[in-house]
């Protein structure tokens, strides 16, 4: 089969011919229809510092995908051949305290599909049946392909009650854009989103943001006067930029709640006065809830959530270089690659 492979410890990726994997006990074999490019894939492509200490080549990338079950391993119940599925990208241990307490998203022993084991940038992928998420017929494959990052956005946005609240999102990457849409969908009041990229801020506005800010031209603190509010009730840090995080803390209302999704550098400073004297609640967000977030995402799309507004590019897999260039430029929302020949 053909697969997009990180062949060696160096920048770049290549399409290679590799053996089709086989489904072992408890696993299924999926024939891929679509695979979306994640920021993580871009890091691995570019071979940044994180990739160098995390990835062991050769590795097939890809953890945002959708396809159909073509083979079912021993002991798997509840799935059938031909069924269309996506999958949770974190394979958990199943035996630790958190897994057994029904909180597998907090498992300390997770393995990442397309990060620590071969992933879905291929014609076929094997995943544990416990990770599957069936996709209803009404949801097109190009949207189901990026339920994984939709899940990051949903997990973060649904962490705190947003109804009637004033929400600040820093970072209008694909996840920030979708989070702005979710805030609108569930009934937030002001939904302010910041970035340094006008293309992405426009996408966020179409998705539901009520005010966008390019922090290269405007100051976040000026928005409080404009909106006539003392501060934001809920913050979602989705840029990974320490300056954005610092500005967010400054703009929070007393008693506000902050969800941290963006990966901040280790040495990112925090003005603890902002957290302590305002009594802020700060919550780290990793992955998605298994599988309540997947349930909520599916039902939101089935009841009119406009996920398609976050999808800007669909390309044949052979054009993957174009997709990675788009991701590196930031002039895109989600970029979805096709394995079926339909695009
Ligand atoms: P992304 O890199 O596409 O988006 C980040 C956005 O932040 C970009 O559009 C960038 O222009 C913007 N930005 C940069 N500086 C800024 C500033 N000073 N103020 C405001 N915005 C600024 O990433 P994404 O795929 O949307 O993911 C968002 C973040 O979440 C990333 O840091 C990613 O690594 C992280 N992430 C975390 C998890 C998790 O489980 N915690 C999962 C997926 C992604
Ligand atoms: Zn576990």
Walk me through what this model shows:
- This protein has 343 residues and is of the alpha/beta class.
- 29% of the residues lie in helices and 26% in strands.
- It has 12 helices and 18 strands.
- The chain has helices spanning 39-46, 49-54, 97-100, 141-144, 147-157, 174-186, 198-207, 220-227, 242-250, 272-277, 292-302, 320-329; strands at residues 2-6, 14-17, 27-36, 59-60, 64-72, 84-87, 90-91, 111-112, 124-128, 132-134, 167-170, 191-195, 211-214, 232-237, 252-260, 281-284, 311-316, 334-338.
- The strands form 4 sheets. Strands 3, 5, 6, 9, 10, 17 and 18 form a 7-stranded mixed beta sheet that branches. It has a 6-stranded parallel beta sheet with strand order 13-12-11-14-15-16, sandwiched between helices.
- The longest helix is centred in the middle third of the chain and has 13 residues, at 174-186.
- The two termini are 19 Å apart.
- The structure holds nicotinamide-adenine-dinucleotide and zinc ion (ZN).
- Nicotinamide-adenine-dinucleotide binds at residues 39, 152, 170-176, 194-197, 200, 215, 238-241, 243-244, 261-263, 285-287, 330.
- Nicotinamide-adenine-dinucleotide (NAD) binds at residues 39, 152, 170-176, 194-197, 200, 215, 238-241, 243-244, 261-263, 285-287, 330.
């Amino acid at each position: 089969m053909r697969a997009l492979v990180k062949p060696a410890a160096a920048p770049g990726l290549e399409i290679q011919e590799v053996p089709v994997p086989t489904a072992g006990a408890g696993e299924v074999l999926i024939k891929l229809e679509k695979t979306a490019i994640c920021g993580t894939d871009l890091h691995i492509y570019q071979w940044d510092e994180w990739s160098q200490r995390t990835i062991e080549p050769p590795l097939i990338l890809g953890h945002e995908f959708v396809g159909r079950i073509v083979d079912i391993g021993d002991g798997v119940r509840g799935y059938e051949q031909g069924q269309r599925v996506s999958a949770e990208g974190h394979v958990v241990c199943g035996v630790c305290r958190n897994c057994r307490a029904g909180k597998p998203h907090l498992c300390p022993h997770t393995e990442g599909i397309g990060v620590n084991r071969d992933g879905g940038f291929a014609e076929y992928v094997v995943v544990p049946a416990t990770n599957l998420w069936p996709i209803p017929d009404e949801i097109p494959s190009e949207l189901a392909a990026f339920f994984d990052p939709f899940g990051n956005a949903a997990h973060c946005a649904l962490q705190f009650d947003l109804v009637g609240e004033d929400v600040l999102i820093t970072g209008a990457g694909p996840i920030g854009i979708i989070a702005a849409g979710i805030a609108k969908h569930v009934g937030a009041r002001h939904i302010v989103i910041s970035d340094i990229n006008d293309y992405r801020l426009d996408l966020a506005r179409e998705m539901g943001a009520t005010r966008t800010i390019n922090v290269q031209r405007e100051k976040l603190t000026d928005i409080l006067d404009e909106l006539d509010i003392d501060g934001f009730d809920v913050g979602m840090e989705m840029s990974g930029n320490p300056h954005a995080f610092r500005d967010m803390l400054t703009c929070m209302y007393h008693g506000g709640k902050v969800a941290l999704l963006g990966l901040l550098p280790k040495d990112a400073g925090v003005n603890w006065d902002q957290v302590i004297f305002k009594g802020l609640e700060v919550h780290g967000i990793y992955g998605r809830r298994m599988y309540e977030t997947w349930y909520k995402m599916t039902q939101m799309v089935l009841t009119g959530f406009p996920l398609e507004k976050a999808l800007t590019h669909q390309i044949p897999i052979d054009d993957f270089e174009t997709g990675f260039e788009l991701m590196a430029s930031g002039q895109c929302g989600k970029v979805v690659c096709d394995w079926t020949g339909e695009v």
